[in-house]
Amino acid sequence: MEPTWSPSRPAEKAWLTKWLAGPQRLRWSDLPVQVGDKVPDISLLDEDGRAVSLRQAWRDGPAILVFLRHFGCGCAWQRAERLAGELDALASAGATVIAIGQADPTRTRAFRERAGLHCPVLCDEGRQAYDALGLLDARPSQVAYGMPESFLRRNLAVTIEFLQSRQGSGKEPVDSPWQLPGEFVIDDSGTIILAHRSQYCADYADIDVLLSAITEARLRL
Q1: Rounded CA gap, 146 and 193, in Å?
Q2: 220: how many CB neighbours lie within 10 A of its CB?
Q3: pLDDT tens, 84-103?
Q4: Strands 192-197 and 63-67
Q5: What domains, with CATH codes, occur in the chain?
Q6: Whether pTM exceeds 0.70
Q7: DSSP string, 169-195
Q8: What are the pLDDT digits (tens) for 155-196?
Q9: Contact (Cβ atoms closer than 8 angstroms) between residue 188 and residue 61
């Protein structure tokens, strides 16, 4: 008999549906934006539900866009907690830091506060900015490495057991399980200086690389 339990919250149900369906965006249909290209003009909601244009981030100098995994992913928490410790150095180098996640404003605020992130975190529920910056879905091996074969195969019973084990942890799987993260350094003209598209969920950009890219952006090298 197939298990009948399912998550009660919409964001968790979305994770289950998307996990069982498998990754959808594994290849680019067109060449994505790259170093030297302008970032498309995109508006996202902030945690108060107000529309914010990404262009505002680099209005006064270089910016870093940090695209996170879903807010139930341990890799997203690791990146957010590490980023919290890097913010002072990045700001001293002259950069504005904007993080982007898949959640709605309420969940975004809760994540930012719990992670101790003192930078804006914008909401991209439709993943339009992820798509516009060329961030693809992962294969199972890129986001579930170390897990048993039955989990990689997306066995329903094993998946349900995994979801139940995370209930009440505050890190329940939500939104898209497949979305890969990435980080972009943008100069004050909106041009991409560094495009770091993660190859697995814990593939973060090194802070020294970010700092050097900020210097390039600031000096227009």
Answers
A1: 34
A2: 10
A3: 999 999 999 999 999 999 99
A4: unpaired
A5: 39-139+179-219 (3.40.30.10)
A6: yes
A7: SS----S-SSB--EEEEE-TTSBEEEE
A8: 999 999 999 999 989 899 999 999 999 999 999 999 999 999
A9: yes
